[in-house]
Design goal:
single chain, mainly beta, five-stranded antiparallel β-sheet, 1 helix, 5 strands
Length: 64
């Protein structure tokens, strides 16, 4: 899993150890910021900051 986390990219879908699902928005040092969805309008997006170690699963974004 550590190898998968080290290769994680913006756009990948992730699941935290607490069961929160989202899309990687930003990666910085030992933290990852994920977008969990819209709050109301498409402009009102919700973001959560996690330590990378809190990521349980990664679904790699497909490249075209």
């Amino acid at each position: 899993m550590r190898e998968k986390i080290s290769k994680m990219k913006v756009g990948d879908k992730v699941v935290s150890i607490g069961g929160i699902v989202g899309k990687v928005s930003k990666i910085k040092d030992e933290f990852v910021i994920i977008e969990t969805g819209n709050v109301g309008t498409p402009d009102e997006r919700s973001f959560i900051k996690f330590e990378k170690a809190a990521i349980k699963d990664i679904q790699v974004k497909e490249s075209n």
